[in-house]
Amino acid sequence: MRYISLLALLSIVGIVSIANPSNTSAQGLLTRTYPPVTLIGFNAGVSIASEDLSELIGGASGGLKFGFDGGLDIEHWFDGNWGISTGVSFIQKGVDQNYTFIPGQSVGSGDDDYSMNFIEIPVLLKRGASVSDISAGAVRPFVCAGPTFGFLASSSEKTNGNIPPLNNPASNLEKFSISLYFGGGSLFLFNDGPTLFFDAGYETGLTNVFKSQPSRTLYTRSGQITSTANEIIVTIGVLWQL
After folding, report:
1. 2-241 maps to CATH 3.90.120.10
2. What is the pTM (predicted TM-score) of this model?
């Protein structure tokens, strides 16, 4: 929660700073070029996923999962400063739980590696910075924030050591998720050509990953666990004007 609060504060500061540029005569890069405008394109990148678990028994520790993120991007700029972005993305999530044998506890040792693939639909509000150089080739920064809605497409589990795998890991997972995304990036406009963009941000889950507690022969959990997914996402993409 400490990291989420810090990211939220930085996003608010960024939006306030961009909304009140020191150079009031500056115009946005998109202002002279083509707003209002709708852009469509593609993006691809990497995700670094983790999970916040309310209960990791037996001295277990959670690791990071590296995956792919990419899909269709659609955004509409109402003017040179404000826009909204959506699309459909495929994102790989998961968690790697490592268990260490502790004498006297009914927990084995080994890795319990969950992989989850989601289809996500983000709805992000964007605020573009005003810049003094509005010629083609200028770099135009932006910040963005908003919810994302995810649908579980597939899941799998790999274990080693003496950790027994679940018969059907998908039966313990929620099929729908809601997350909150904070991020920022830059647009780079080519003269009479496409717009390239770079985006990096943090996505924190607002809903549980597990709908029921996994039950194994080595151990049982004491009550319902709570688990939320978190990701650092970095993407690059290209957009064309409709």
Report:
1. no
2. 0.73
